Amino acid sequence: MSWSAWIELIASGLITGSIYALVALGLNLQYGLMRILNIAHGEFLMVGAFLTWMVHTQFGLSPLLMLPVSFGVLLVVGLVVHWLCFRRLTATSPNLDIFEARGLMVAFGLMFLVQNLVSYVWGGDLRGYDYLTEPVRLVGTQFAANKLLVFALSLVFAGALIVLLRMTLLGKGVRALMQSPIGAQLVGIDTKRLHPLMFGIGLGLSGIAGSLLSMAYTISPSMGEPYTVTALIVITLGGFGSMGGALAGGLLLGVIEAIGMHFTNPSLKALLSYIVFISVLLLRPEGLFARKGRKA
To answer: Which residues have CB under 8 Å from 66's CB, separation 6+?
Structure first.
């Protein structure tokens, strides 16, 4: 392989990995803070993608303008879902283990509910639209402009969340809750307000990821579940609760998949991901990038 082919291959993996990272960050925020393993997370990504597709194709609105709209809509949906489902589970579960088990069952129900609702409203066909498909030449290779935009914006939003968690008072409260929930509550951090807000922000990030995906790839009502599974693999790579690890893990997994599929077979993409997943669980269960005692 020539050096330009290697650059194109790695760049393709980084573009895909940036979306993985953005989805994983939202899921990691929910699990790391509230111990909600929201396996319906990818379905809300799919909702963001379909909202962007519908508004762009029917009203001609730029997909870029849908990014804040998708974030806002999914944030509100997250607040409602948390209030209707997980708030009550928190109050009625006698301990954390039972809460996690019940939360997982609720998330299963949400996954099928959202998937079937979208299928009913928009049908089960593949959807897509052309947006910034012209090629851009960089370092001797060509890339579609929409995919470069997806990569750049994914990193911007992922970086914004990490900065929020590390540099603001709100972020310090979230990190304190991740590290010691009881200690954080003793110093006055209000979990009744922080939990639903962070759950909503997590879903808002999935909405942004869906909008970005719709700019460069076809979408369908079944697209969410694979992204949830991939997000779980990314979180395992980076370490549960580690936001920087989720970003690095997403980019790494994208590159591994791209190189692996090039030298093997594209149909083995899922197999490659699961091999990485199992290997990390067995050899470094705390994650490749997480340092003990430190999150985010």
So the answer is: 51, 52, 55, 56, 211
Summarised one tens digit per residue, pLDDT across range 44-92 is: 999 999 999 999 999 989 999 999 999 999 999 999 999 999 988 988 8
Q: Dihedral through CA 29, CA 32, CA 37, CA 38, nearest 10?
A: -10
Distance CA 219, CA 123 (A): 12
The class level of CATH for 3-122+135-283 reads: mainly alpha
Kindly give the pairing relationship between strand 135-138 and strand 141-144.
antiparallel
Global pTM value: 0.90
**Tokens in use for 225?**
């579940």
CA–CA separation, 79 and 74 (whole Å):
9
**Domain locations in the chain?**
3-122+135-283
Do 236 and 287 meet the contact criterion of CB atoms below 8 Å apart?
Answer: yes
> Among residues 296, 287, 36, 39, which one has the least CA distance to residue 166?
296
